[in-house]
Design goal:
Elements lengths: L1 H137 L12 H6 L2 H153 L3 H45 L1 H34 L5 H35 L11 H29 L2 H7 L3 H4 L2 H13 L5 H22 L7 H34 L6 E2 L5 H35 L2 E3 L4 H34 L4 E2 H14 L11 H24 L4 E3 L5 H12 L4 H100 L4 H49 L37 H20 L7 H10 L12 H31 L1
Length: 1018
Amino acid sequence: MPPKSINVQEPVQDDQELQELRAKIRVLEAKRADDSRHVQQLETRLSEAESFVALRPKLQAKLMSQQTELAATKREIADAQQLAQLSENRLFDAQEQLEMAMLDKEVAEERSELAETELEELKEKYAVLEVEIKVLREGGGGINPITGEDSFDSIKNSLAYIQLEKQNERLKEALIKLRDVTQETEQDQRRRISEMEKDIIGLDDLQSQFESTLVKLSNAEVQIEDLKLQLDDALGAEEMLVQLTERNLVLGEKIEEMRITIEDLEALKELSDELEENHVETEKQLIEDLNQKDTQIHQHVQRIEGLEDTCQDFESTITKFRDLVLQLQHELDDLRTQTQTAQTESATAASQTAAMMSLNLKLQSSALKNQAKNIDLETRGLEAREARELLSIIQPYLPDLYVESDTDATNCYMFFQRLAHKADLINSVVAQAHGLPDSLNGSVSETLVGVCEMRARISGLSTLCKRFAAILRRCDVESFLNIGRILPEVLPMEKRIDMHLNLLRKDEFREMECVSDIVKIQAQFDHLAETYFNDFDHDLGERELGYVLSFDHDLDMFAASIGLAKTCVESILREDELVLDMGGYDIKTELFAPLQTLLDNSKSAKNVSKKLAKRMEDLTEDSSALKAHLVSEMKSLSDLAAELVNFGISLAQQIMPHLSDARSGKSTFQLTTLIAIVKQTASATVVKDIKLGESVWDAIGASIAAVVQEGSKLLPLALEAENVQKISGKAPWVNRVAEIKASLAINVEAERKVAQLNDEMQGLVRTLKTKDQSIQENSVKIELMERRLEAAKRQADNIADLENEISKAKRQERAYEEAMEQLQADLDSLEQDNVKLKTLAAGQERQGAQQSEPETVIIEGSLETSHLLEQIDALRGTVRFLRTENSYLKGQDLLREIQSLPPLLVPLNRMPTPPLHPSGLSDTDDSDTETPPPPPTLRSLTTETKQLYRDVIRFSSSPRVVDLSTLNSKRAEAKGGKVWLPKKHTPAHQVRERKIEAERLSRRVQGLLDRASLIDNL
């Protein structure tokens, strides 16, 4: 049976593979259709972009015309504004002149009127004086008092008459003058009115002109705004055109990429067709094999029928292993599918590599190298995965002491090693990308100088991390654990290095940003070195390696700076329009040849530095180092190289401004200036004391030769085995193992006691919890009893107050009763007197009135009885009034006292207390003996009825509407799906609260009815 199942499963697996391949083919065809559709869209966009490019000259012409129109309208608006301003100024001047003329006229009129009045007064005085003089001169004229003949003449000749005549004549003259003056003023006024009307007509014209200019100005401003908008539209169209051109280029690149992918997909489809044909052939072969196997199966079945009796004993064991066999078969099927997919992938890779080999031999070699690298990476990845998995398995077995104390120190050691490796990786990849140091032999750019500087700094950082790792590898346990505490401080620095690695992987590496980050990290690590790593000598080999690598990178910096200066001068000499002033010197012999000599000498120094670096790397890998007395020589060699770097960088920085001035035309290119810059820089850095007659270049070459000589002396010393010492030291984690093992020694008895103590402690905790619970219950009971005691005290006080008031009421009642008894006794005595008087009066009436004296007595007695009767009636009225007043006052006093008294605490029949829950969290059975509520009174029932009536009216008059706004908004946000709401906001909860409120009100109404019926029963 098992062979049959295996043979049946093989064609099933082949069918599954065939279906998978067909599905992949369908997916590839769908992708190809999508790519073709995408290509068509890109072509349409490309045609649109070309149409926009064709419209660009038209838009530019329209923009130019609009700009000219805008300039013309601006000039017209400026002219209109100037004309309007001139007209306004003229109108303002005319108004001012008119106002001044009116003021001058009014002043002149006032002055003329004053002068005329003064003249009239003077004339009158003059006339009076003349008349008086004449009268005095004439003198002797008199009047005959007897005859009266000369009376009229005397009157005429009198002074008053003469004065009147003169005054009449003056008045006539004044009237004539007044008439003349009025006529003249009227003429002047008419003339001025006509002139002012003319001025007003001109003013209206000016006003109309002013309004027309304002209208023109507003129209011009509107046109300016329209032109500005058109100009903005034109500028936007130009920007859109630039964007469309850029987009056109990007789309063209995407189209090329899509074409390449389409070709790859076509190749894959052809491969899938071939695989399908092979699959059909294999299927036919498998069917033939199946037929053969079927015949064999029939034979085996016949044999099995004879052996069934013996197999029954083994069926129990077979069933146990059947599940395992099925699982193994599934695993085998999965492995087969994986191997088949791997075979197909390897077949496709082999076909692609064969095609590439046929295209180019160089590509074949690179592919083989990449394949080897991929294999190495895969094996290393497998080893790394195994190591991580092994670490994850081992970590739970590690003791807590290690996790608490040694984990940070171990991670810190790994961190420094990892950071050093990443820094070296960046250094090597950047150097390979820029072709260093071979690229320094040709033309050098500023970017290459920056790369050399970056390599020097990142190499220093890598060396410092290696030093830290070497110290942690060989220090004592206490220092190892103390240094592990700095891990949280230094761990975030790795993110910056990882960021630069990602940028380098994406070919977006930024050298200057990397340099700035490395400078910051270097400063922090220097501080750490001074704080934690200053007293150790375990990093001797790494320090020596750092000096040698610094010497090597400084030589690269020197060569790069000298090459940059040479390249800049050569590039400026190629320009035709440049003015050259060689000063009678040959630039090749005076500048280029010495610079090339310096570069050649630096190459020999570079060979020495490479050998030293290789030697020191081998020693550090072997945990060895040169002896300490050679460190000073390495440091001096590094310092000499640093001086050469300072010279090269200073020379390039000082040459650049002169070359830029010469290129811009501000000054001529002078070779003497360059030579002077070289001398000045060399005297400030490398050659501080130049001998007389010695060339600067010879002095600089001598310093480079000194560097080469020092390196050559140091190299054989480094190669000698006598100067090599082995750096020994035991790793702190090895020493730590014994301590951790000793701390983890198993003590069974101690563990048993600890477990017993833990059990006892848990029992004590449980008892404490129960005691705390009982204490809390007792405290609650005590508080409840205290509240009941306080209520009983208040009730006793109220009862005492009520008893005092009752005693007072009783005393007052006794006083009222005594007063009533006294009044009743008085009334009885008066009634007896009344009866006596009535009997006396009846006897006297029967005797008759026979004598005078008795008659008078009877009269007197009747008068007394009537008076007494009136008094009796009055007393009866007063008694009735006093009784009613007494009863009224008693009732009012009693009502006031009863209303002021608190309600009596009469025990009330109530429902029995329901049984408590057995959880023990509720009150005890003593709660049944609590103080019953006070009995209801009429006043409490009325107030409660009013309150209940208000609540019912409010409940019925404000029907609750279910709020669905929150639910609808949530459903709108979720686009019709299920949403979550708080329970208080759901419609069902709102309806339930409405029902609960209605039931509560109905219970309150029923309770009120019960209390009212209880009062009726009482």
